[in-house]
């Protein structure tokens, strides 16, 4: 088995394309086959290198990697040409010199007669000489017009035979006026020569499939299996587009989504394995089949993607999270240190963050030199003389903490011990003074971060360290 993903590099890789690529990849892997990537870049005006790079990078980020060298259609024009020659020689294709105006006129006439507007075959039997061939022309495929002839295929997802009478199909163009083959032609040559056995693609290509099958047959190639995936809709039931927010894979990456979450989300968008919601790539490959792909359109649900993202963030090691956050932070000045102090906070915040961006924002208090104290927030609490006394005592408590607590923790195990020590000492300090955590937590949060919500107190003490804790308490008292 061999599958492929064949994007046109005319835009960033979007969610729909990524899902099609994923389906192809896991289907091949499930069956011990190969997956290949082909760049369909024959639309020279709209294709751009940066989109191609984005597509390859985005797929790589999702662990979807081509098993063979990536083909570029733009480099294969002579191959397509040789097959065009073959069809011309065998009388299965012909030159067409009809002008746009003439074609338009013919179509209008048919429409006026309530008939389907199609090419009426003016040039079908023409035998142009060399002089004529110097004038603008396209090359058309000669569709078998024998009465009653039809083209059909069994769609593996819809699980039904799709059949179309040949009389409904135009003698379609296979080479444009500029000499470049059309999508329908190049795709057949490439899929056939690459030995693609299964073509899984968006259902916007259903109507192209009969044309492609005609070409396979005319060229004596084995016809692959076809499966068309239904599209992805936005919550409003309209085709997913930029209007619905981020649609490119790269934007999801920048917005702090993990590739595992996006892969898991996309595979479940239109495919299911019982009630399993959380699936790793290995599990997906193990269980994937076409039978359980939904026939109807899928609706994109950001909440569910966020839920999966939280799950994967929660299950990651804090150091891995630090490097993932650094990966997406554009400004090298704001990179996180890969040390235990940062890891302590990341670890304590990971279960409260739906995206890496959110997690990173929660670290602002730690990265910023100073805290901005917002009077509006602070005045919600009626702090008084007693609270100031508490903070002074708390400051002394911090100063007197054993320095080893801060210096000994070299890894996550060491960190656990340090947090445990801080916790024990702090609880002793509170109970000796008849205070409780519940009463005092808010003022500490506000002093350390300026916010009502913060990471746990012990982790903050550890990560900020003695000096910065003291600085903040003093700054809060003097605000
Ligand atoms: N380049 C085509 C597209 O992006 C490929 C379609 C196909 O998979 O055959 O729509």
Task: Explain what this protein looks like in three dimensions.
This protein is 47% helix and 10% strand. 33% of the residues are buried. The mean pLDDT is 96. With 479 residues, it is mainly α. Bound molecules: glutamic acid.
Spell out the blueprint of helices and strands.
Elements (H helix, E strand, L loop, with lengths): L1 E4 L9 H16 L3 E6 L9 H13 L9 E2 L4 H13 L3 E4 L3 H13 L25 E4 L8 E6 L4 E6 L7 E3 L7 H11 L4 E5 L6 H11 L5 E5 L2 E2 L15 H6 L4 H10 L12 H7 L10 E2 L2 H13 L3 H11 L11 H10 L6 H6 L2 H4 L7 H4 L6 H15 L4 H4 L4 H22 L3 H13 L7 H21 L2
Parallel strand pairs: 1-2, 2-3, 9-10, 11-12
Antiparallel strand pairs: 4-5, 5-8, 6-7
Helix pairs in contact: 1-9, 5-6, 8-10, 11-12, 12-20, 16-20, 18-20, 19-20
Bound molecules: glutamic acid.
Salient structural properties:
single chain, 479 residues, mainly alpha, Arc Repressor Mutant, subunit A, three-stranded antiparallel β-sheet, 12 strands, 47% helix, binds glutamic acid
Concise structural overview:
The protein contains 20 helices and twelve strands. It has 479 residues and is mainly α.
Give the helix proportion (percent range).
40-55%
Widest sheet: strand ordering: 1-2-3
Outline: elongated
Total DSSP helices: 20
Question: Using DSSP, what is the number of strands?
Answer: 12
> What are the distinct ligands in this entry?
glutamic acid
Percentage of residues in strands:
5-15%
| CATH fold field value of the domain at 318-477 | Arc Repressor Mutant, subunit A
CATH architectural label of the domain at 318-477: Orthogonal Bundle
User: Average pLDDT value?
Assistant: 96
Rounded to the nearest angstrom, the radius of gyration is: 32 Å
Distance between termini? 70 Å
CATH class of the domain at 318-477: Mainly Alpha
Regions with pLDDT < 50 over 5+ consecutive residues?
none
Largest sheet: 3 strands, parallel
């Amino acid at each position: 088995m061999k599958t492929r993903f064949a994007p046109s590099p005319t835009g960033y890789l979007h969610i729909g394309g990524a899902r099609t690529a994923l389906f192809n990849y896991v289907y091949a892997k499930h069956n011990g086959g190969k997956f290949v990537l082909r760049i369909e870049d024959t639309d020279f005006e709209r294709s751009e290198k940066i989109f191609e790079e984005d597509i390859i990078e985005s797929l790589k980020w999702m662990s979807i990697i081509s098993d063979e060298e990536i083909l570029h259609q733009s480099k294969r024009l002579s191959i397509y040409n040789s097959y065009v020659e073959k069809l011309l020689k065998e009388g299965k294709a012909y030159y067409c010199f009809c002008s746009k105006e003439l074609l338009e006129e013919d179509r209008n006439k048919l429409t006026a007669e309530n008939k389907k507007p199609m090419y009426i075959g003016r040039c079908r039997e023409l035998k142009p000489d060399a002089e004529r061939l110097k004038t603008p022309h396209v090359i058309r495929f000669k569709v078998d017009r024998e009465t009653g002839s039809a083209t059909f295929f069994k769609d593996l997802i819809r699980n039904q035979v799709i059949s179309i009478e040949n009389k409904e199909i135009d003698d379609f163009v296979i080479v444009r006026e500029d000499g470049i083959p059309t999508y329908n032609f190049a795709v057949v040559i490439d899929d056939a020569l690459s030995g693609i056995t299964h073509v899984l693609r968006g259902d916007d290509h259903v109507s192209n499939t009969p044309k492609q099958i005609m070409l396979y047959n005319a060229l004596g190639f084995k016809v692959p299996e076809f499966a068309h995936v239904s599209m992805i809709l936005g919550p409003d039931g309209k085709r997913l587009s930029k209007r619905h927010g981020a649609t490119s894979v790269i934007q999801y990456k920048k917005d702090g989504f993990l590739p595992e979450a996006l892969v898991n989300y996309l595979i479940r968008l239109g495919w299911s394995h019982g009630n399993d919601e959380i699936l790793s790539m290995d599990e997906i490959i193990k269980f994937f089949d076409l039978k359980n792909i939904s026939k109807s359109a899928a609706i994109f649900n950001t909440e569910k993607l966020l839920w999966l993202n939280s799950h994967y963030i929660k299950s990651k090691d804090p150091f891995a999270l630090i490097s993932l956050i650094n990966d997406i932070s554009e400004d090298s000045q704001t990179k996180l240190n890969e040390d235990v102090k940062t890891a302590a906070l990341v670890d304590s915040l990971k279960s409260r963050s739906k995206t890496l961006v959110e997690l990173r924002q929660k670290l602002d208090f730690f990265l910023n030199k100073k805290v901005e104290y917002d009077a509006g927030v602070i005045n919600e609490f009626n702090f008084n003389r007693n609270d100031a006394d508490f903070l002074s005592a708390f400051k002394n408590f911090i100063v007197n903490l054993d320095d080893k607590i801060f210096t000994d923790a070299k890894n996550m195990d060491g960190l656990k011990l340090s947090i445990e020590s801080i916790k024990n000492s702090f609880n002793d300090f509170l109970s000796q003074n008849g205070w409780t955590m519940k009463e005092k937590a808010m003022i500490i949060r506000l002093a350390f971060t300026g916010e009502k919500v913060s990471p746990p107190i012990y982790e903050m003490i550890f990560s900020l360290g003695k000096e910065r804790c003291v600085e903040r308490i003093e700054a809060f008292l003097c605000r």
